[in-house]
Design brief:
Length: 227
């Protein structure tokens, strides 16, 4: 899992005992059978959060980071690196089964992260993952990422859709594609295609049903254009 995003230059600070206690309790609640030691504290900027001061707590051996509101002590970001032996077998099984359902060739779990209320199991590449609710044990989302799209027919559909978005000018589709699952999404499994416009800050994105081949949506990231 990525570290706290959009950080500004760090500054050494003093942290109250209440905040330290709250962070330690959150760690213990999330991973009761593992030991995590605090390595450092620093003040960070969080532009996507409400205005205020935020403190990042870094754990020893790069085993995670936690960001709290300096005034309220509220935890706003929480990520612990977990060893697979510390992941409950039921969570591992659920994650592997979901990856296998999306693609039997991608059913390996290589790493794990623990949030306050979630598990994130990482597959055989960084962008392949399954998110599982820590209380219910249910999958909340899953993504399999391919360096090359496995279905050429879907690539052709994506290319034609992007061409329409681009004023009928040809668009080159990136080789990579993401296959996503979200139980809240009634569209089922969805393929997400991108074009090479990322190089010039204009990005075409197309969503296609993995089983149906139906285009569910397309947009230009810079122009906010929706099909």
């Amino acid at each position: 899992m990525p570290r706290a995003s959009a950080q500004q230059a760090k500054a050494k600070i003093e942290v109250s005992g209440d905040i330290i206690a709250k962070v330690k309790k959150a760690i213990k609640d999330a991973m009761p059978n593992s030991v995590y030691e605090i390595a450092d504290y620093s003040r960070v900027g969080m532009p996507n959060f409400p205005e205020g001061e935020y403190i990042e707590v870094e754990l020893q051996d790069k085993r995670g980071n936690i960001v709290v509101n300096a005034q309220s002590g509220e935890i706003v970001l929480f990520s612990l690196v977990a060893e697979l032996k510390d992941v409950p077998m039921s969570i591992l099984t659920t994650g592997k089964n979901k990856l296998k359902e999306l693609d039997p060739k991608m059913a390996q779990v290589k790493g794990a992260y623990r949030g306050q209320d979630t598990w994130i199991l990482q597959g055989n590449n960084f962008a392949t993952s399954v998110t599982i609710d820590g209380k219910s044990g249910k999958v909340t989302k899953a993504t399999v990422s391919y360096a090359k799209a496995p279905d050429k027919s879907k690539v052709d559909i994506a290319r034609k859709t992007m061409k329409l978005l681009n004023g009928r000018q040809d668009v080159k589709v990136l080789n990579g594609v993401n296959l996503s699952y979200n139980p809240q999404n009634k569209k089922g499994k969805v393929l997400q295609f991108f074009d090479e416009g990322l190089k010039n800050s204009i990005l075409h994105i197309v969503h296609i049903g993995a089983d149906t081949g139906k285009v569910w949506g397309g947009r230009i990231a810079a122009g906010k254009r929706i099909l």
